C-alpha cells in the first residue's frame, strides 16, 4: 500500500519520492488506499496520480474533464484496472474521498483497455485543450465545482502571476499615464525637463509640465512622464529650445 501525506484538513494530499523533502503544510501521513464512486475514480483510468494530468469540472451541468492535447496519445495508451473493494472497510474523509488502511482483498478487478471510452461511459464529457493551467484558472474564476490532477503548483502560480502583471499593465491607460506623479510635492502629471528645480547647484526635480496661471518660463516646455526620462532627449534635433 502507498503512503500519502496530507494537510490538516485533507484539502491537499499526495505522494512524494523517497528521500524528497516534504512541504511543511503536509503535517499528516497515512498508508492505505483511496477510493471513490465510479464517476470520480474513472478519471484515473488514464493513470495514477503521478501519471495522469487533467482538470475536471464536476458541476454545474454534465461533468467535464479537460486533458492537454499533447498528453492524449500517452493517456489513451495507458492500461489500468478497475478494482472494487468492500465499502464497509473504508471511511469518508473531509474531502468526500474514501480511505482505508486495511481494504482487504478486492471483490472484483476489471481491465480497462480504453481509458477514454471508460471515462465517457462513467458519465464524463471529454474536452481537449492546449493550456491546462489556463483552464484551471478559468474554472476557479467561474466559481464552479472543480478539481485537478498532475498540474504543477508552481506552473499554475507562475501563469497566474503573469496574467496579473498583464492586467496591471493594461490598467495604465493614457489618462493614468498623464496623472502619474512626476513633479515634487502634491502636483502630479508630467514634468517639464526644461524647468529644473535646483538646490545648492544640483537638480533636485522638475516643475510640472503645465504652467500655473500668470507663470512664465524662459524655455518652451519639454515634457516627459517622469524625471528620469529627462536624461533622454528623444528624437528631436534640438534640446532645450528657447522662445
Question: Could you explain the architecture of this structure?
Answer:
- This protein has 243 residues and is α+β, with helices and mostly antiparallel strands.
- The chain contains six helices and 14 strands.
- The strands form four sheets. Strands 2-1-3-8-7 form a five-stranded antiparallel sheet, with no helix packed on it. A four-stranded mixed sheet has the order 10-5-4-11, with helices on both faces.
- Helix 4 crosses helix 5.
- The mean pLDDT is 76.
From the structure above, extract its key features.
243 residues; alpha+beta; 2 domains; 5-stranded antiparallel beta sheet; 4-stranded mixed beta sheet; 28% strand; elongated
List the helices and strands and how they pair.
Elements: E1 2-6, E2 13-14, E3 28-35, H1 38-41, E4 54-59, E5 64-68, H2 72-76, E6 80-84, E7 91-92, E8 98-100, E9 108-112, H3 115-121, E10 125-129, H4 132-142, E11 145-149, H5 153-171, H6 174-179, E12 191-199, E13 202-208, E14 223-224
Helix pairs in contact: 4-5
Strand order of the largest sheet: 2-1-3-8-7
- Anisotropy-based shape: elongated
Low-confidence parts: none
Beta-strand fraction estimate: 25-35%
Helix content: 10-25%
Described by strand count, sense and barrel closure, the largest sheet is: 5 strands, antiparallel
Q: Tell me the number of helical segments per DSSP (H or I, 4 or more residues long).
A: 6
- Structural category: alpha+beta
Q: How many separate structural domains?
A: 2
Average of the residue pLDDT scores: 76
Distance between the termini: 86 Å
Our Rg estimate from Cα atoms comes to 31 Å
The total beta strand count reads 14
Amino acid at each position: 500500500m502507498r503512503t500519502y501525506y496530507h494537510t490538516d484538513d485533507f484539502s491537499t494530499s499526495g505522494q512524494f519520492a523517497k528521500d524528497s523533502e516534504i512541504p511543511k503544510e503536509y503535517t499528516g501521513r497515512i498508508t492505505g488506499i483511496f477510493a471513490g464512486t465510479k464517476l470520480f475514480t474513472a478519471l484515473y483510468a488514464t493513470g495514477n496520480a503521478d501519471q495522469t494530468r487533467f482538470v475536471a469540472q464536476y458541476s454545474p451541468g454534465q461533468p467535464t474533464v479537460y486533458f492537454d492535447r499533447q498528453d492524449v496519445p500517452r493517456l489513451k495508451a495507458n492500461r489500468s484496472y478497475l478494482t472494487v473493494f468492500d465499502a464497509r472497510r473504508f471511511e469518508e474523509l473531509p474531502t468526500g474521498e474514501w480511505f482505508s488502511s486495511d481494504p482487504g482483498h478486492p471483490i472484483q478487478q476489471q481491465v480497462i483497455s480504453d481509458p477514454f471510452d471508460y471515462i465517457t461511459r462513467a458519465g464524463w464529457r471529454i474536452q481537449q485543450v492546449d493550456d491546462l493551467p489556463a483552464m484551471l484558472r478559468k474554472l476557479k474564476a467561474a466559481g464552479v465545482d472543480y478539481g485537478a490532477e498532475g498540474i504543477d503548483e508552481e506552473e499554475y502560480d507562475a501563469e497566474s502571476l503573469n496574467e496579473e502583471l498583464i492586467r496591471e499593465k493594461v490598467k495604465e491607460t493614457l489618462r493614468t499615464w498623464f496623472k502619474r506623479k512626476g513633479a515634487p510635492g502634491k502636483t502630479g502629471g508630467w514634468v517639464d525637463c526644461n524647468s529644473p528645480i535646483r538646490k545648492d547647484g544640483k537638480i533636485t526635480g522638475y516643475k510640472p509640465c503645465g504652467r500655473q496661471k500668470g507663470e512664465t518660463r524662459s524655455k518652451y516646455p519639454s515634457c516627459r512622464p517622469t524625471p528620469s526620462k529627462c536624461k533622454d532627449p528623444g528624437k528631436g534635433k534640438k534640446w532645450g529650445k528657447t522662445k
